[in-house]
Design brief:
Largest sheet: 6 strands, mixed
Order of helices and strands: EEEHEEEHEHEEEEEEHHHHHEHHHHEH
Structural class: alpha/beta
Oligomer: single chain
Helix content: 25-40%
Length: about 350
């Protein structure tokens, strides 16, 4: 049996899987508050003692970069090392995966209920293929697949076909330079550099949970729209301003918030299109992270796909790329499970 976890700064989702039952049928599953435990080993031992199951290997999705088998969760102070975890937990193998790498592992396993289609597109027409468990699904063989996930930060990954299955590739593309596409975005970039003092403005600075308030601040400070007093009070009282802004925009309660979300969606569409071009994602683009499912009404209004396709001579190519929003909130756990099962003997 394989053990999988999605490790975040706030909570950690854990589950045990078997090759017979597959990634959608965990034998045991639980969620723990990460901050209550001094280390991942302590948390895992408590879960396994409760589950009372014997596991042999583990795959852990981690919200942060994994370098040479090591990773950290900054606000927890946890330092995770594959070799140390393997010895401490008495397992035959332990793998740490960047959380976007974990999500990418899940993409070939996703079912229709896990997805919302933004653009039907025309995926590479090589026909469906099946998993080891024998369950067919609709991805076409051959075309590369892009994954972009705005959550707290902006994650990016991609998959390539090796002739028999898809292979995942992590990246730090969310930290690439923000490239304005119109006068509004040029002035936004200028504001972030000169007004807020950011030496380097990445896509994550404007296209994530951390970045959306930066768009809001520019629109407010430039006088594009007025900040109502009731909203200012809510923002002052909130630990995280992003949900306040998004909720007000979706409820159509505030022009400033509506303009902020519209700009966010346009920038997300442009960067998703950039990633699709870079990897020639004829197999599709998948939007992960916590934000896209929350803002589906805004994504469906057309602004996202307009920005996605606006690539000059390659507009027709991008119009044929399928685009999906991942709805499954446990997709990173599912992907870690898929990684463990596909590497089972």
């Amino acid at each position: 049996m394989s053990f999988a976890a999605d490790i975040g700064g706030t909570k950690t989702n854990l589950a045990v899987f078997s090759p017979e039952a597959g990634p959608y049928a965990p034998l045991a599953e639980a969620t723990f508050p990460s901050g209550r435990y001094p280390s991942l080993e302590t948390l895992v031992r408590e879960f396994l003692s409760q589950a009372d199951l014997q596991v042999e290997r583990a795959s852990f999705g981690v919200a942060g970069p994994v370098v040479a088998g090591r990773a950290t969760i900054t606000n927890l102070g946890w330092v995770m090392d594959e070799r140390q975890l393997q010895e401490a937990l008495d397992l035959s193998s332990v793998r740490l995966l960047n959380d976007l790498d974990a999500i990418a592992h899940a993409v070939p396993f996703l079912e229709p209920a896990d997805l919302h289609i933004l653009n039907e597109g025309q995926p590479t027409p090589s026909g469906p293929f099946g998993l080891a468990q024998g369950r067919p699904f609709g991805l076409a063989q051959g075309g590369a697949i892009a994954v972009i996930a705005p959550g707290t930060g902006l994650g990016e990954a991609f998959l390539t076909w090796d002739g028999s299955r898809y292979r995942t590739h992590a990246s730090e593309g969310g930290h690439a330079d923000f490239a304005p596409t119109n006068l509004f975005e040029i002035e936004l970039l200028r504001y972030l550099q000169e007004g807020l003092g950011f030496e380097h403005v990445s896509y994550e600075r404007v296209c994530s949970g951390r970045g959306l308030p930066n768009i809001y601040a520019y629109l407010r400070d430039s006088g594009t729209a007025c900040e109502p007093a009731w909203l200012a009070e809510q923002l002052a009282a909130a630990d995280d301003p992003t949900p306040v802004i998004v909720n007000a925009a979706l409820a159509r309660e505030c022009e400033l918030c509506i303009a902020t979300l519209d700009a966010f969606v346009s920038i997300l569409g442009a960067e998703a299109g950039n990633l699709a071009l870079k990897v020639v994602a004829t197999g599709g683009v998948y939007l992960g992270g916590g934000i896209p499912p929350r803002i589906l009404p805004a994504l469906e209004q057309g602004r996202f796909m307009e920005s996605f396709r606006r690539k000059g001579r390659f507009s027709d190519l991008l119009a044929r790329v399928p685009v999906h929003v991942i709805l499954n909130p446990k997709v990173a756990l599912l992907g870690a499970a898929c990684h463990g099962l596909e590497n089972s003997p």
